[in-house]
Amino acid sequence: MSAQLAEMKSGGEDTKALANAAGTQAQAAVIQSQQTEVLATTASVQAKAALDSAEASRTLAEQAKVQTQKMVQSLSKTDELIRTATAQAMATNKLADASGSQAVSAEKALRLAAEADRPWMGFEGVDAPPPGIAGGVVVTTINSGRSPARIIEYVAAGLYTNVLPKDPPYDPSVIDPSKLSQTILVPGRPLMIRWDQPAREQRVIDAVTNGYLRLYFYSRVTYQDIRTGEIHQTKWCELWNPIGKNYVSGG
User: Fold this and answer.
1) Confidence of residue 109 (pLDDT cuts 50, 70, 90)
2) Between residues 202 and 18, which one has the greater pLDDT?
């Protein structure tokens, strides 16, 4: 009997132990379930955050696409504006060139017209004896233009030399400049200078005849266009030609 009671007592204790163990396991299961629920909630929050981030990224991507399209359109418009401005600039340059050419042509025409109407003092001729022979020398200039000219200076001279200097000497006593300043030469009217050429030694004559020396006659006339006040000047020279025995242009 005692043995049965002991066995029953022992069995009750085992049952209690099993119940306790089952309670512990149930409590652990509850805790695990709670932890699982927390993890599920955390995963849900993270998933939603990921979806929100993806949506935001997609929105940014769409906005970037729209901005890119706008930039492309803006660049296209800018290129078109540049092409239009370039074409307008080229057209303006062409018009400017055409206007410039017309202005130059008009100025040239006016200048030619003015030149045609101005006085022109030119060389008419020289009348002189051969080299070394005494006699009078007459140098004549004439106004071959269309307007009167006021003579400011008219000088002439003769010179035995091999080469005529760029600025040859003149005898200022040939014509009084104060008298010339009062001279108005109308178109077609000549003006003459006269002086006496002295005789020269035979050796000078031989040198000119043989081409070792030259006899030049030269002149310079300075005159004013009485219409415009412009000053003009004409120079000329002639030299003795021993072959033709006459005076020819010397430049």
Assistant:
1) very low
2) 202
Q: What is the number of domains present in the chain?
A: 2
Which pair of structure tokens corresponds to residue 103? 């202005």
Same domain assignment for residues 110 and 7: yes
Query: pTM for this one?
Result: 0.53
How many C-beta atoms surround the C-beta of residue 237 within 10 A? 20
Residues 86 and 175 placed together within one structural domain of the fold? no
List, as one string, the DSSP characters of 205-239: HHHHHTTSSEEEEEEEEEEEETTT--EEEEEEEEE
Give dist(CA 207, CA 215) in Å, integer.
10
In 3D space, the residue among 216, 230, 234 whose CA is nearest the CA of residue 154 turns out to be 234
Do 67 and 101 fall within a single domain? yes
Report whether 157 contacts 223 (CB < 8 A).
no
Same domain, 95 and 171: no
**Residue 90 and residue 163 in one domain:** no
The mean pLDDT of 213-238, rounded to a whole number, is 94
Among 67, 93, 117, which residue terminates a domain?
117
Distances (CA, A) of 189 to 74, 143, 148, 184, 231: 78, 6, 9, 10, 19
Average pLDDT (23-52) is 73
Enclosing domain of residue 54: 1-117
